[in-house]
Design brief:
Length: about 140
């Protein structure tokens, strides 16, 4: 039997069998450590799906293009449910801090107004300082 990940011969005692494509994998090739592999239930092993099949099934009728998870097996404190059910579009979460183009343009205009106001104030202060210095130099010359 050949591993679908590394293409080397393998022992069936140290492998997971994909129920979708019938390919076997070393648990090491799936980034699973020995403790995690031993803790997997028989039910989980019999219904396990390989990364390639998970990737294909996740993209059916969805706009998700997320690659397969880094670690296929959860740590012991996580649940063992690794089903790849497709999320409903209604469950998609849009971050509350997202900004529309209109809002962005409004903010940009406000910033530009502030910038122009600050520039005008700085120019006015510069002119005042320049006039004060000129008058002081004139008084020194006299």
């Amino acid at each position: 039997m050949i591993c679908g990940g590394c293409r080397l011969l393998m022992n069936t005692d140290c492998s997971l069998h994909c129920h979708t494509c019938d390919i076997n994998y070393h648990y090491e090739c799936l980034n699973i450590n020995k403790e995690q592999f031993v803790s997997l239930s028989t039910e989980f092993r019999s219904s396990w799906t390989c990364p390639a099949c998970v990737n294909v099934t996740r993209r059916i009728k969805t706009n998700l293009s997320t690659p397969v998870r880094h670690n296929q097996v959860p740590s012991t404190e996580q649940s063992m449910d690794l089903s790849c059910e497709i999320l409903n579009k209604s469950e998609a979460h849009i971050p509350s801090d997202s900004v529309s183009i209109e809002k962005f343009n409004e903010l940009l205009n406000t910033i530009n107004l502030w910038r122009n106001d600050i520039k005008s104030n700085i120019m006015s202060i510069r002119d005042e300082i320049k006039n004060d210095m000129n008058s002081n130099f004139m008084s020194i010359r006299e």
